[in-house]
Amino acid sequence: MNGRVLFVDDDPDARALLAGGLGRRGYEIVPCGSAAEALERLRGEEVDVVLTDVKLGGMTGIELAQKVAESHPELPVVVITAFGNMEMVVEAMRAGAYDFITKPFSADSADIALARAIQHRRLTSEVRRLRQALSGRDAAILGDSAAMRRVRELIEQVAGADATVLITGESGTGKELVARAIHELGPRAEAPFVAINCAAIPASLLESELFGHVKGAFTDAKGQKRGLFVQASSGTLFLDEIGEMPAEVQVKLLRVLQERRVRPVGGEEEVPFDARLIAATNRDLETEVEDGRFRPDLYYRINVVHIEVPPLRSRQGDILVMAQHFLRRHAERSRKDVVGISRPAAQKLLDYDWPGNVRELENCLERAVALTRMSEIGVDDLPERVREHQSKKLEVSDNPEEMITLEEMERRYVRRVLAACGGNKTQAAKTLGLDRRTLYRRLESLGIGKEEA
């Protein structure tokens, strides 16, 4: 069915004629003889669009469009008006009508206008649903920084598709929360979200977990087991820390993604699955590929859409927003009347580098709420590492004997940026304002080897 149309016209012959033509084109027609009847029907029935003649006995089509816009703002109204009557068209649009068609018209022209209006309504509803869902997400994807706005935009854009997504970022940035948001905002939301940490399972068991096994496949295989790919069918499979996956499993995973079928360990028959794949890693997979630790063909297979979650230190403006979110959460859980963060404590939060990212920030606020005896978090409620933190800055001495060369200063700064980025060269290059190849050349010229980097 193309859509449900509430058709309002006080001429029964016109209603029957258009209902027949649109019915053959896949529309369900709900006929009404007056605007009052149409408003009554809208109180108890769901329709996708209202199609109304302007001239009706009693309330006009323009008045109906205005009332529909007030009571059902997302429901588009298409008005039918006489040819050349632009004043009526302008009045209808001002009243809230979405579109118009002029008499005389055919069922084909009405079909085009209705299809456009219904598509507009569905898109509007989907955007509203996405925004509501995202507004309720965890603090990891809160914040008004440009980087996080881009992350949320990508989540919205990719949620409705079925493309494989690779989420990168340091540990603790909230990569799994991003994956869950993509799942929950997409058409697979009612199906399972199955997550596995590839680094937490021994290589000998990872294949069985992913693909399943048959009875007797190995010593402890006392029964048949469905793998996670099959368990996640119709839903989403999230492979966290995919950069830790052993090479022998990478080969089999690539084939599974290409064929969309899995063969359980010890089995002879392949089993089809229908699961969306989302992967995440805190490693620089491009470097892993270059160093031969990750298969390039698998990298390109999983990196269809790339979402990079920025570290907390690169979006300082979001820190207090997230801190307040965590404060409210843990104050409610512990039933404590803690409502804010003192100015000195807030400054300490802003000064800290947050190597553990969002996960460390939440841990800090949970601790502070548990310890405080006041209605505000104070400096003494914060962990010692946050209270005592001093920003590390390169300083130039006034003593000529203590001065260093520009090259040595650059070497120290690059090392510090690499350390702050956890060795992630892609992130370090962005922080330094360089591309990856330029960074590699600078590392070589500065004498910073792979192991040191």
In short, what is this structure?
The protein is of the alpha/beta class and 453 residues long.
List strands and helices in order, with pairings.
Elements: E1 3-8, H1 12-23, E2 27-32, H2 35-44, E3 49-53, H3 61-71, E4 77-82, H4 86-94, E5 99-103, H5 107-135, H6 146-159, E6 165-168, H7 175-185, E7 193-197, H8 203-211, E8 212-213, E9 225-226, H9 228-231, E10 236-240, H10 247-259, E11 261-262, E12 271-272, E13 276-281, H11 285-290, H12 296-302, E14 305-308, H13 319-334, E15 340-341, H14 343-351, H15 357-371, E16 376-377, H16 384-387, H17 406-420, H18 425-432, H19 436-445
Parallel strand pairs: 1-2, 1-3, 3-4, 4-5, 6-13, 6-14, 7-10, 10-13, 15-16
Antiparallel strand pairs: 8-9, 11-12
Q: Strand content of the residues, in percent?
A: 5-15%
Label the overall shape: extended
Approximate helicity band: 40-55%
Biggest pleated-sheet summary: 5 strands, parallel
Give Rg in angstroms.
30 Å
Q: In oligomeric terms, what are we looking at?
A: single chain
Query: How many helices does DSSP assign?
Result: 19
As laid out across the biggest beta sheet, the strand order is 2-1-3-4-5
Arithmetic mean of pLDDT: 85
Secondary structure: number of strands: 16
Quickly give the structural class: alpha/beta
Q: Tell me the span between the first and last alpha carbons.
A: 60 Å
Instruction: Give the low-confidence spans.
Output: none
